[in-house]
Amino acid sequence: MEQALKGMKVVDLSQVLAGPYCTMVLGDMGADVIKVEKYPVGDDTRSMGPYINEESYMYMMVNRNKRGMCVNLKTEAGLNVLYDLIKDADVFVENYRPGVTKKLSIDYDTLKEINPNLIYCSISGYGQTGPYRNKGGFDIMAQGLSGLIDMTGEKSGNPAKVGIAIHDIAAAETAIQSILTAYIHRLKGGKGQYIDISLVDSGLAWTVWEAAAYFGKGEVARRNGTAHRVSAPYQGFKTKDGFILIGAGNQKLWENLCRHVLKKPEWIEEQRFLTNSIRAENVAELEAEMEQVLTTESSDYWLDLLDTHGIPSGPILSYDQTLNNEQIKSRDMILDYEHPIGGSMKTLGFPAKFSETPGQLVKPAPLLGQHNKEILTELGYTAETVEQLVDDAVLNNNSVNVEA
Predict the structure, then answer these.
(1) What is the longest distance spanned by two Cα atoms in the chain?
(2) Which of 238, 262, 327, 390 falls 20 to 30 Å from 14 in CA-CA distance?
(3) What CATH superfamily is the domain 9-206+330-401?
């Protein structure tokens, strides 16, 4: 089946999550992604468990559909290998701290001399400019600076980190859309260009409701549990045996909820709950009164009743329940594949469903340096030269010991 990005060549020097997630998606869509890992240990994620036959599951999750090399860029020969890769590359992705690529002679100014059409994407904690540019920045620091930690958690509780590495993924998604935008621009006759992606900027750009409240009224987003900032009821509620989510975010849904589910039609005329905005202002009282009703029956009882009357609702699942949920499975969000070391494996599926060019799981994550020989042969290197590069500590041993 045709893949949308077939013919795009991506050289990936990133590691851990934001960069690798970006290049994984490009690989899922058909790009030839060549992951160049640091010599001799590879991506830091390789040292993170759990392990399957000594291979990191974390590493395998975000490095599928890539070919892998392990190159010592601190040697002249290793740099020349990278330069040879860049000559016909479309995209280059890295996530070093600002300034490091200059020291390694792999910065944009250097690489664009080799390939003027190159789209060069840097992903860093704070970006290439500003007073924080040289600080080390991981996802949790970005969550702190963007305000996410301060606004997450129960109203009476401590600040809480968002449950996933949300700034890493936000940066990855921002990098994907930016690379594809630059690629389209180049296809239309434009030049290659440099893209500067910041974890902080990428996550901050998603705080649109919170920014609107602050710019429009001076309101600062605060911890609010599961409740929405401007809509109610739109949150989690306690039942007799657990919690459920109810989203009656407009007046019609609210009136249906009162009449047909909660059996409280008098709340429709109640001054504290008269409009969506007023309900949001009185959300604590609304929650307390709704839970007096909801705690009389089980979660399943209420979810069935809410569905019957067309009111958006749902369970609050643990992650294992999520991965075994019938909706998730029906959407092919869990894929099975074979890994040469790990054996039968599972991974997450493709969230976008294309009718003509769907994402495909073509190859598992590479072993460390698995494709050194294959890729260098494509570049015109002889077998003897590859073996000499291994002997000279430029490539790792898998270049000659592992079949492509």
Answers:
(1) 85
(2) 390
(3) Crotonobetainyl-coa:carnitine coa-transferase; domain 1 (3.40.50.10540)
The whole-angstrom distance between residue 29's C-alpha and the CA centroid of its chain comes to 16
Q: What are phi and psi of 93, to 5 degrees?
A: -125, 130
Q: Does the model's pTM come out above 0.90?
A: yes
> Which residues are designated catalytic?
168
- Hey, is 124 helix, strand or coil? strand
Nearest to 92, CA basis, from 26, 188, 161, 164:
26
pLDDT digit string (tens) for 333-369?
Answer: 999 999 999 999 999 999 999 999 999 999 999 999 9
Cβ atoms within 10 Å of 202's Cβ, excluding its own: 25
Q: Where are the domains of the chain?
A: 9-206+330-401, 234-316
The Cβ-side half-sphere exposure at 14, using a 13 Å CA radius, reads 32
- Say which residue the tokens 């020349």 belong to: 80
For the stretch 301-332, pLDDT in tens is 999 999 999 999 999 999 999 999 999 999 99
Report whether 217 contacts 196 (CB < 8 A): no
Residues 92, 62, 194, CA angle at the centre, nearest 5°?
Answer: 20
Tell me which CATH homologous superfamily contains domain 234-316: formyl-coa transferase, domain 3 (3.30.1540.10)
